[in-house]
Amino acid sequence: LLGVHIADVSYFVASNSSVDREAMNRSTSVYFTEGVVHMLPEELSADLCSLRPNVDRLAVSAIIQLDKDYNVVGSEILPTVIKSKARFTYQDVQDIISRKSDNKFKKELNQLKRLAALLFKRRSEGGSIDFDIPEPIFEMGDKGIPHEIRPSERMESHRIVEECMLLANRVVAAEIPKKVPKKFPFVYRVHAKPDKLNVDRFGSLLKLLRLGVQVPEGDLSPNDFKNVLKYVEDSPYRHLIENVTLRTMSKAVYSMKNQGHFGLAFQHYTHFTSPIRRYPDLMVHRVIKMVCDQSFEPKEEWRDIMEKVVKLSNAGEIQALTAEREYIKMKQLRWLGERIEESFDGIISGVVNFGLFVELKSSLAEGLVHLDTLEDDVYTYDEDLYCLRGKKYNREYRLGDSVRVKVLSVLFEKQRANFVLNNE
To answer: Second label for 19, Cα 20 to 30 Å away, from 209, 279, 321, 379?
Structure first.
């Protein structure tokens, strides 16, 4: 048995209360290094809904029964009261399962480690695409200027939580809709297959990079994308290809219609595991309680609410992602602004008719090498080959090439850093 226990936020947030209406409008929490814009009052996450060790806490639990081959053979999804025995950080767990530290729960944690590895293997065999794209981690200094930026590291402890969450979301999406009245609204997390034009561009780009990997003609399956990522796993192009693959995909959205999840290769999927920071999860918890109580809201009234939730949550997610990306961009620019004339290794992440975009390997910060600064030749843009080519010496700068650059300037008002090539 695997138990996935999520704090029962719905107990403390009454439907259509002032707190609930504000949470619905916000739809999600927004995360920055220096703080969080919470969807719900911080008192809930810090106290009432915090699953503290050795304290009784209300939860909504997915109890999942697995057979010896790790197929789901049964489940129970219901409100519970739990008393956890310990709280760990990701690093705590990583140290225990990698034998860097000892703990009385090491046996249980190593069982979870083995379970996560097997769940990942099964998921991967089913075609699920696994992205491992690092995010910049900021160590903040004075006046909000980072003194260090490093790529995030994905540890086995992250994998444990991720696989348990994916399984719980999948089981809830498969089982709860079976137990509601006919046509009773439910919220799914769906992911459509990629647009054909994007797929064609993806295939063309792979050919141009001369990596020796090709994609089939026509519609692609999740396995086709997974095979490409597997092929470049040990390649210097890995980070670039993962980003391009992600941009090729459609965006996952919330929907009342179950259309499956292309990227995960799941028939059924929802968001159940984060009701403190995502409003659709809170709605899923409310439906679970209706099922357990066999007391359902009027169908048409609930449909109107769900339609509003889906609309607000899809829009709110885009706003949150935009805010988080702009924050990251500005912090990277402030970091670069302290490093004028310093040189870094990077990779060409974009080629345009006015120059090269270069992403620094150590910090993931990006800047522009303007065409005018390439003084060793007259370069022209080849749109078909995504490259700049010198007219006299035929030197090419291609997408994915490694280069060394020097920070020339930072234009905060344009949210842009300027680099020059440093080939010394």
So the answer is: 321
